[in-house]
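Hey, resending since the last one bounced:
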Amino acid sequence: MTETLPPVGIDLFDVERLLLTEAAEPPLSPQDATARDRVWDMAVKANRALFDGPAVACGQLERTGPGVLRLAWVRVTYRHYALRRVPGAIALPSLFVNVVQPTDDGRELAARMSPSTAAPGRWQLPGGSVEPPQDGAVLDEAALAGQAARELAEELGVAAAAEDLELWIVTRGEHGSVGLTYLAPTLPEATLRAHFTAGAAAEHSEGREPELDTIVLVGSADELAGLDGPHTDYLEPIVRRFFDQC
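The structure tokens again:
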């Protein structure tokens, strides 16, 4: 028996296997499409960091057995999420990957988004939106782990092999957004900070601002309360689960 997972609240699900299927984007009325485009254009004028690139949304998430989740994914662009501000329109939840990066002394990393990003000053885990496969490739568990590894390299400067990242937790939170959380191998603090500093310097040398402007290491979920600025809805529950299980 399958169980459709609840669409609201912050829920964490242990996962041992993820079944992936592609689904079509629901049809959109001309009126909703026009309203979506109007909202998107206004959002871009307010924040030039927004761009209408390819993305993957979650069509459905359901539990099919202990530790087994089935996820139907849909090709969209970021413009799709402007439907959240169109009364009566249905916007699919976003799908993203993120990574828990522990240190060898038992702490865990949290990162703050740079001022030029779409979420300036927000505390979160390293990660980003899932991208659709290209050139006949498939979106499977290996591909998702590869995207998580790429985010870790781009944002922290840490080169982890995709096969070394363990799909650990699936979250469902604000707007029903679904996050796939991977657990990375531990690193010494000095190594982690050196990678982050080198990665940021490389971005600056190319004339780009890094996506993350600072990182902190916390020894408990309670320490997150001391971080000024907004937090992603999943941050505290994931960090708390990490310390509860480790």
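The chain is about 25% helix and 30% strand.

Sorry for the duplicate.
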